[in-house]
Amino acid sequence: MMTDAGxxxxxxxxxxxxxxxxxxxxxxxxxxxxxxxxFSILCAGGSFGAAVLAWNHGGPDALRLVWPWLPSDGKTLAxxxxxxxxxxxxxxxxxxxxxxxxxxYSLRYLHDEPKRALGRYYTYxxxxxxxxxxxxxxxxxxxxxxxxxxxxxxxxxxxxxxxxRPAAARAAVKAFWITKxxxxxxxxxxxxxxxxxxxxxxxxxxxxxxSGALPLAGLSVITFCIYLGAMGKxxxxxxxxxxxxxxxxxxxxxxLIHAATMVTAGVYLLVRTEWLFALTxxxxxxxxxxxxxxxxxxxxxxxxxxxxxRVLAYSTVSQLGYMMTAIGAGAAAAGFFHLLTHGLFKALxxxxxxxxxxxxxxxxxxxxxxxxxxxxxxxxVFIIGTLSLAGIPLFGGYLSKEEILGAVWAxxxxxxxxxxxxxxxxxxxxxxxxxxxxxxxxPASMAAVAHATAHGxxxxxxxxxxxxxxRHETVAEAAHVNEPPHAHEPPATMLLPLWTLAxxxxxxxxxxxxxxxxxxxxxxAWLTPGAVGVALAGLLLAWLTYQKHAIDAxxxxxxxxxxxxxxxxxxxxxDLFEAIYEYALLGFSRIVGWIDRYLVDGVLNVxxxxxxxxxxxxxxxxxxxxxxxxxxxxxxxxxxxxxxxxVFA
Amino acid sequence: MGxxxxxxxxxxxxxxxxFGVTTRRNTIGILLGIExxxxxxxxxxxxxxxxxxxxxxxxxxxxxxxxxVTEAAIGLALVILLFRVRRTVMADHLDLLKx
Lengths: 649, 99
Description:
The structure holds two protein chains of two kinds.
Chain A: H1 2-25, H2 27-31, H3 34-57, E1 63-72, E2 75-84, H4 86-109, H5 115-137, H6 141-159, H7 166-197, H8 202-211, H9 219-233, H10 242-245, H11 251-260, H12 265-272, H13 274-278, H14 281-303, H15 308-328, H16 332-360, H17 371-374, H18 376-390, H19 396-410, H20 414-439, H21 445-454, H22 472-477, H23 492-514, H24 527-547, H25 553-559, H26 561-568, H27 573-618, H28 626-646
Antiparallel strand pairs in A: 1-2
Chain B: H1 3-23, H2 27-52, H3 56-86
Helix pairs in contact in B: 1-2, 2-3
């Protein structure tokens, strides 16, 4: 039943909205903390169920369930509702699944939070789930843009969840502003597209584009503007700088928003408007090159990070670059497939990292080590996620990654292809670096523990996800973080989401390996061994360096000295933005300020001074004596009479 | 004698009254000046009534005289009150409205 699918999608969309409204309005419930959380989880669960039903019942055709929204000139400018097709329903499933699992996981992860903060957290979570699903199901670009801004708002609110910490507050503002810079482009693109075509509706736009009725002149500008929005949201170079800082938020938030769903909204937007971009191949080329460059840049950056969450954040940026490259090569389906698998295994990795952080009380890799013995289940699921991300066969990420590589090769883009191959190598290297440093080897943190206890740190601080220093030396100095000496396996409410995601990652990988549909362009025969080979090479290098210590990490670093120091400085991109801000923006503001202070205000000050002087002079004639006024009246009447006589006669 | 002679007389009386009103320091003198200006108007009215043969002007004059009397009474009463409060009737001392 087709309408069923629409109805189910609508239920999936409205349940989190209901949860948000209840939690937002009924303050006593919100302040209770855990009951509010359970309510939100219940709604998220219902939403996930409805999403699965919608996906199950949805046919291959698009189904629109819309109501008139913006009236203009007796017509409707835009509708509001849901657009149900295979792409949106599968995305809906991913969003609602990860939202549900993250909410369950957070219940334990944030158990030290005050009740009010917990209620606030779940209110934001519900709002986010609603906004993201609204974005996913949007039948037109206006609703999409509205939800796009809403998820941006939720991202801001949740990054700044620990707003008492200056770093978190700064990161929240940074994320908000940088994505906003892209959003302006998106808005301009949407309005320009409306001017060109007269509609916001995706279905109508699609048929216009398919029939060739859409004028091509100026379309490149429009698609580029839309791509700008995607660039900000999906952290493409040079607007990627906000995502690593966004790790200041709680780890489940990073898993949901900054790995699985919101950051992929940009990719999703491009997948949704793929037919539009197909009309502008030059923009697609830009998308592909920037995507590949972003992937490479972020992969290099990930290799030098010592903060487990930052490694994952850069890896997310890198994988988003992968998806963008696929779209740029004209293979939106491959990009979307990677979006879905990435959503699963990256959420898994983040949640796994979260349980490590929860147990160790620190983000810093040098303070971990040997955790596989103390928390074996976490180690297993984390390794599953890592294998999937590295693109090892039978795991979720393998097929989607290879499909992208094949599509990029088939798309005739050898440059981006080579970059992506290098990224595949680096991905395996930096992820297994994390695995070996955190889960294997000697518990390197023992020394640090002794150090910390010697300094008399107090226990029972909440999971600290603070800004980590980038160099080992400073990390050792920053040993004031609480570290329980006996890290242990997290409780079931945290393990359950982890295992769910791990099993799904495996299931997707195995299912698609054996029922693999042939891609349109058959990849060359050497691609599979090549892709797997570079991944294994990365794994091997990480193993030799960090496990066997056959290669000294220090001399390896020395080999890439200049690149390493550049990467530690984040390639000066943040500094570049800072310099632009400092010199261009502040300089311009100073000029404007000078003009305002001295020219604009000056003119007004002179005028008011004149008025004051004139008034001062004129008050002399107000003598207060009645006779003088009578005299004035008499002279005035005389003057009027003379005027009438002499001039107007 | 024509109408103009009366009008001229009226103008002269009016100007004398106005001069008195604007220059006299004593408030009672100002009141007197006002009376003169009123009577200049009366002369005008009577002269026009006489030369146009319309009696309405004369009737108006009677009214004006009545009102002038009451006005003078009120004015004098005000002056007396003023004197009680301020101990002066000199107009140039009464400058409370000075800006």
